[in-house]
Design a protein that fits this description.
Layout lengths: L2 H24 L1 E12 L2 E2 L2 E2 L5 E8 L2 E5 L3 E6 L4 E6 L4 E6 L4 H4 L2 H13 L3 E13 L2 E12 L3 E10 L6 H12 L7 H7 L4 E11 L2 E15 L13 E2 L9
Parallel strand pairs: 8-14
Antiparallel strand pairs: 1-4, 1-13, 2-3, 4-5, 5-6, 6-7, 7-8, 9-10, 10-11, 11-12, 12-13
């Protein structure tokens, strides 16, 4: 055997193997989410969205992105930032982690919002159950989170959690906390969800406001390991930064 020829070939093969290993490690996880909703309920005068569409979630190394119809949210843990993006008017809001909404809103709104949040502070109940089922291709168990707030508001989340989807939860949880925090009844229920083991593959939410109801569902329908397109975890160029406005935010 000619070692002068063999050594370079072995070195070349090793480089290829390392490159493949690095590529696999660097891959992102893409989740496709089917969303459905029906009925109309309003919370503190804010109509809740209805309609069916497909959303996507991207999980990277310390990075997270969710895309809905006209809105995206990005979490960058290394920068300790959350970006909420409105594609309709090409604007975005940048928030520092941990999110402090009162610090982020314009000063002239703070006292009014603080009083509203105090008046709307909900009671939150978490019920873990022994109920298990197969959701899609994943084995899951059901947990119920009930949020009860003044003005006849009750929100019941039936959440099916699985241990079979391996994702980094923190970016997802921070994004959910930021979006939920825009509701007048706050995002405390997301803290309860973040404390549970597993990832939600199906969430059914019943919102009741003074006799009016909205039923919504979010179901994971596909999970694939792939490379996120360039710019996935970035605010699009040309978008304008806006101040937080809980009554007009994306």
């Amino acid at each position: 055997m000619n070692m002068h020829h063999t050594a370079p070939r072995m070195a070349g093969a090793l480089i290829v193997m390392l490159a493949l290993a690095f590529t696999a490690a660097a891959a992102d996880l893409k989740l496709t989410i089917q969303t459905e909703s029906e009925g109309t309920a309003a919370i503190a005068g804010l109509e809740q969205p209805t309609g069916d569409y497909e959303a996507t979630m991207w999980f990277g190394d310390g990075r997270f992105r969710r895309d809905d119809e006209d809105r995206s949210i990005i979490t960058l843990l290394d920068e300790q930032k959350v970006y909420i993006i409105d594609h309709g008017d090409q604007s975005y809001i940048g928030l520092d982690l941990p999110v402090d909404f009162l610090a982020a809103v314009p000063e002239e709104q703070r006292q009014m919002i603080k009083q509203m949040l105090e008046q709307m502070e909900p009671e939150i109940e978490v019920e873990t159950t022994d109920e298990e089922d197969t959701i899609g291709e994943w084995n899951a168990r059901k947990t119920i989170i009930t949020v009860t707030a003044p003005m006849g508001i009750t929100i019941t989340h039936e959440i099916w959690l699985t241990d079979e989807i391996d994702v980094e939860r923190r970016g997802y949880d921070e994004a959910a906390r930021a979006l939920s925090g825009m509701s007048p009844i706050g995002g405390d229920w997301v803290d309860k969800l973040a404390g549970l083991e597993g990832f939600p593959v199906l969430t059914e939410t019943l919102t009741e406001v003074m006799g009016r109801e909205t039923v919504s569902r979010e179901r994971v329908v596909n999970v694939e390991e792939t490379t996120a397109p360039d710019g996935t975890y970035e605010v699009p160029e040309g978008y304008t930064q806006q101040a937080m406005d809980l009554f007009g935010a994306p």
